[in-house]
Amino acid sequence: MNNNGIQGRLPLPRVIVGCMRLASGGIENATRLVSQAVENGLNFFDHADIYGGGESEKTFAKAIKNAKISRDKVVLQSKCGIVPGVMYDFSKEHIVRSVEGILSRLDTDRLDVLLLHRPDALMQPEEVGEAFTSLYESGKVGTFGVSNMNPMQMQLLQSGLKNKIEFDQIQFSPVHAGAVSSGFEVNMETVGAADRSGGVIEYCRLKGITLQAWSPFQYGFIKGAYIGNPSFAALNTVLDEVGKKYGLSASATVAAWIARHPAGIQTVCGSTNADRLLDVKKGAETVISREDWYRIYTAAGNILP
Ligand SMILES: NC(=O)c1ccc[n+]([C@@H]2O[C@H](COP(=O)([O-])OP(=O)(O)OC[C@H]3O[C@@H](n4cnc5c(N)ncnc54)[C@H](OP(=O)(O)O)[C@@H]3O)[C@@H](O)[C@H]2O)c1
Q: From CA 123, how far away is CA 146, in angstroms rounded?
């Protein structure tokens, strides 16, 4: 059986609800969050087997039950492949066993999207292909993708798969814009010229792979929010100015910045605050001008040669 593309099968909202921090806010907050999210059309949820050591998926399942939301009203995405602090594991056995765990914690019989969380140097594409085919044919997973992969890794993996790689989830924001900077600064000696992602945005556009931006409001490797942070004063000034023009908050303006890229990048918002989530959605639905996109890009410290 061949799974040829998600067009028309899955809704692709501009904002995905990231559930990495869901358990930390408690069940009442989680129930309010999923309830308000789904009511307002945010029905695509991002998980991973390792978030909260599995507690995030369990909290989500309880919250959905409390909120009386039926399974067919939500799109569930989760990830596997990381054995925390030990290794990455794309063996067939690990992938299949991980999905069983995810399904059990999410209290469902099917996952809409499975992503491989981080590239495993020891991966055998055909072995991953066997795992995906068996999960797809048994109805346990509908769609597949990856996270933190560059184009060559995706091509190598795809060579062993019957199912198309539909998603690549990468870190992306004005303060983590290397995937764009390396394009502006091609063949230069500047910091931004370093090609750390291998032209991932161009590749995904060419192949019809949907990009998802993780930690869109965090700087560094999930070090804290840069919005309202005095260390990012110039960026915040411009976010406030541009936001004012469109009636958006600074976070919503970042979502508008991500959505403005023609690659159709989805913002994976990890807020545990339902109001903030809806605010970010409003931003992602707003089209900012080319000039404003570039203003935000340079205010974040990126250069235009
Ligand atoms: N594929 C991967 O390798 C990978 C890695 C990391 C994360 N992810 C995914 O990406 C999602 C988002 O990641 P994340 O939670 O680190 O990033 P985020 O959405 O950039 O940050 C959200 C966190 O920042 C706080 N925050 C403070 N001020 C904020 C503001 N003005 N606007 C927005 N948030 C603000 C939020 O607090 P409140 O809760 O109080 O709003 C929340 O704790 C995760 O849930 C997960 O699904 C994937």
A: 13
Residue 1 pLDDT > 60: no
Rounded mean pLDDT of 55-79? 98
Ligand 1 atom with minimal separation from the 224 CA: 24
pLDDT 10s digits, 40-56: 999 999 999 999 999 99
Gap from CA of 269 to ligand 1 centroid (Å): 6
- CA 132 vs. chain centroid, Å, equals 20
CATH of the domain at 58: 3.20.20.100
Which residue minimizes the CA distance to atom 18 of ligand 1? Answer: 215
Nearest CA to ligand 1 atom 10: 214
What range defines the domain where residue 140 resides?
15-171
Give the CA-trace dihedral at 20, 22, 25, 29, to 10 degrees.
160
Give the pocket of ligand 1 (CB within 6 Å).
18-21, 46, 147-148, 169, 214-218, 222, 225, 227-228, 251, 268-273, 276
- The verdict on pTM exceeding 0.90 is yes
3-state SS class at 226: coil
Strands in the chain per DSSP E: 15-18, 44-46, 75-80, 82-83, 87-88, 111-116, 141-147, 165-171, 210-214, 266-269
- Best substitution site from 168, 173, 210, 218 to test ligand 1's pocket, by max atoms within 8 Å of Cβ? 218
- Which residue has its alpha carbon closest to ligand 1 atom 43? 271
Whether 259 is covered by a domain: the verdict is no
> Ligand 1, atom 8: nearest CA belongs to which residue?
214
Whether 209 maps to a domain, the answer reads no
Cα-to-chain-centroid distance, residue 159: 23
Share of the chain above pLDDT 90, in %: 96
